[in-house]
Structure formats: structure tokens, C-alpha cells
Amino acid sequence: MENMLKCAFIVLWVQLGWLRGEDRVEQSPQTLRTQEGDSLSLNCSRTVSSFRGLQWYRQDPGKGPELLFLLYSAGDEKQKERLRATLLKKGSSLHIEAPKPEDSATYLCAVQTQCSPGTCRLYPNPETAALE
Q1: pLDDT grade, residue 65 (50/70/90)?
Q2: What pLDDT does 83 receive?
């Protein structure tokens, strides 16, 4: 029987810049449990009219966000140890191979946009996502 990892992942998204009304950034899944030896994927979908880049961050309790990956073009893929981020045409995925308890953190997807003053507004996150 596999050992259940005692770790929690929290996924949130952050929007950098201002968004037009039809622009959206969403992360999934909202809740995730994993077992030792399994891998997991976090997804970030976007419909942003003036996309300039996508970032993945990790935030440990009581600390500020730490930049993991910065992606600019569809097809970009970056890896850091067991973490791998891929940028797709309308989103991104963050894969964690064989997660360990020390991977427990808040993971944030951020999209950088560009717009003219008066044409954009901040789009609030409707809900937070927790991964356990």
C-alpha cells in the first residue's frame, strides 16, 4: 500500500496588469491529493487579448512569492529539478514529478498583459484553489 504524503498544495492565480472585461485567467484543479510516487499537474488557462508572458510562482507560508518559471511563447518549456512548466497557446501546465512533503506550498499562475489606460480593468479571482 502506498504511503499518503502529508502535504498540501494551494493554487491561486495572480493577475499582473489590467484586464479587459472579456479576459480571464483560471487555474485547476482546485483541490488535489497525491500519493508518494505519483506525479501531479496544475493547469492555468487564459483568454487574454494582449498576452505578454506567463509566470509560475511558489509561496511558502509566511514568505513572499518566489518566481519558478517565466514563459513567453507557446511551446516554451522549462524545468527545475522535479518541476516542469509548459506554455500552451491558451494556457500553461506545471508538472511536479514524485511530489514530496517539502513541495507543500501555494502555487500561483500569473499572466502579464498590456493595454491602454482606460481600456482595461482588474479582474478579481472568484475563488481560491487548495491542493492537499
Answers
A1: very high
A2: 96
Nearest-angstrom CA–CA distance, 34 and 7: 8
Q: Which cell numbers hold the place of 115?
A: 493595454
Rounded Cα distance, 102 and 105, in Å = 8
Strands 40-47, 91-96: pairing kind: antiparallel
Mean pLDDT, residues 20-24 taken together: 61
Single-letter code of the amino acid located at 12: L
pLDDT of 8 above 70: no
Conformational region of residue 49, where left means phi above 0, alpha means psi within -120 to 50, and beta covers everything else: alpha
Cα 87 from Cα 112, distance rounded (Å): 13
